[in-house]
Write a structure and sequence with these properties.
EC 2.7.7.60, 7 helices, alpha/beta, seven-stranded mixed beta sheet, binds magnesium ion, 2-C-methyl-D-erythritol 4-phosphate cytidylyltransferase activity, transferase, isoprene biosynthesis, 2-C-methyl-D-erythritol 4-phosphate cytidylyltransferase, binds cytidine-5'-triphosphate
Length: 228
């Protein structure tokens, strides 16, 4: 299974001066944990890291220090996550039929989650790992900050990655997204806009996306528990 790891962000919400994926989590750079989990997954046999030029040297060093068992390819990122994944899809070998896309920032996803997604994508066109939301979610008017509605929580799931797709279909959806000017924060949204089905795979509660400093602290706590 082919795996693309978008890692070309800046980590603005982390408030750090460099890409948050290069920050230290326990004794390793954050992205190293993501790579180790992907490498430990039985189903992944090709890894593409999508990066910004200024991070290339650091990421190459991290990868070579990890001595992973699978080949790692370095792919030029874009201005948005959507652009980065678009580039990643262009860089897949022509024989790639299915792909998993997993945010570098979700460094706690387990090899088992990769394996379950890799298995499931052989039987559907598109999927995402997701978990039922625990909070009650409000839709709020941007200007007045008044609540406009409260969606029924039983229908709400929090989207995670890995997300898996048939490569050709996802490429078509990305191309359509560009033509139409759709701006999305995950790949499933492009699939949905194209009226294609996206299956839910049960995600992991611990599979958080490290976004703000508190996430880094929580991730460290979870990793410590796992390694204890
Ligand atoms: N990403 C990417 N290319 C971009 C922007 C983001 O590959 N142009 C990646 C990030 O590196 C991350 C994933 O997409 O692994 C999810 O994005 P997010 O958590 O938003 O990371 P950042 O964009 O780096 O953070 P922020 O939005 O706070 O700046
Ligand atoms: Mg971002």
């Amino acid at each position: 299974m082919y795996l693309l790891i978008p890692a070309a962000g800046s980590g603005r919400r982390m408030g750090s001066s460099r890409n948050k994926l290069l920050l230290t989590l326990l004794d390793q750079p954050l992205i190293a944990w993501t790579l180790l989990a992907a490498d430990a997954s039985e189903s992944i046999d090709w890894i593409g890291i999508i990066l910004q030029p200024q991070d290339r040297a650091d990421l190459q060093t991290i990868v070579s220090n990890l001595s992973l068992s699978k080949p790692v390819h370095f792919i030029q990122g874009g201005a948005t996550r959507q652009d980065s994944v678009y580039n990643g899809l262009q860089s897949l070998p022509p024989m790639a039929k299915h792909v998993l896309i997993h945010d570098g920032a979700r460094c706690l996803a387990t090899p088992n989650l990769f394996d379950r997604c890799a298995e499931a994508i052989l039987h559907c066109q598109g999927l995402i790992a997701a978990v039922p939301v625990k909070d009650t979610i409000k839709v709020v008017d941007q200007k007045t900050h008044l609540i406009t509605s409260t969606p029924d929580r039983s229908q709400l799931w929090a989207a995670q990655t890995p997300q898996g797709f048939e490569v050709e279909r996802l490429q078509q959806c990305h191309a359509e997204g560009r033509r139409q000017g759709w701006e999305v924060t995950d790949d499933a949204a492009l699939f949905e806009q194209c009226q294609l089905p996206v299956q839910i795979v049960e995600g992991e509660e611990t599979n958080l996306k490290v976004t703000t400093p508190v996430d880094l602290a929580i991730a460290e706590f979870i990793l410590r528990q796992r390694l204890a």
